[in-house]
Design goal:
By secondary structure, this protein is of the alpha+beta class. It has helices spanning 16-28, 85-107, 114-118; strands at 5-10, 38-45, 56-64, 68-74. It is globular, with a radius of gyration of 17 Å.
Length: 125
């Protein structure tokens, strides 16, 4: 199934290279969950002072039946406020892939991996 993708740009000039990257990454999301209903990507450039380098912000929202919505917000780290947009997009899609894989395993009732099952739970008192 092809993932329906909506891309919006805010204060960012649309680029064919970025658009192609987004569609390639969005298409790969089907490998992690085959029931994706929609995928919305928002690329924004914040209007802040010149000290921060006008960092980009990438938001990915994916909907999956029954009523599941996964959201990833990716901003550059404090140590690298001028991180390239391509790197932010790639990292955001990696995070979304992990979330989809985890949700898919949960929906199919697969047990946790051995490492997760053996890890002691933290007790908060």
């Amino acid at each position: 199934m092809r993932v329906p993708v909506e891309v919006t740009y805010r204060n960012v000039t649309k680029s064919d290279r970025i658009e192609t990257l987004i569609h390639e990454k969005a298409e790969k999301l089907n490998e992690f969950h085959d029931r994706i209903v929609s995928c919305r990507i928002s690329i924004e450039q914040e209007q802040e002072s010149k000290k921060t380098g006008n960092p980009h912000h990438v938001r990915i929202t994916v909907r999956i039946p029954p009523g599941q919505e996964l959201v990833v917000n990716q901003k550059p780290g404090e140590d690298n406020p001028g991180e390239p947009l391509r790197a932010l997009i790639t990292e955001a899609f990696k995070t979304m892939s992990r979330q989809l894989k985890k949700l898919n395993e949960k929906q199919r009732g697969k047990p946790k991996s051995r490492v997760e099952a053996e890890a002691p739970e933290e007790v908060v008192e």
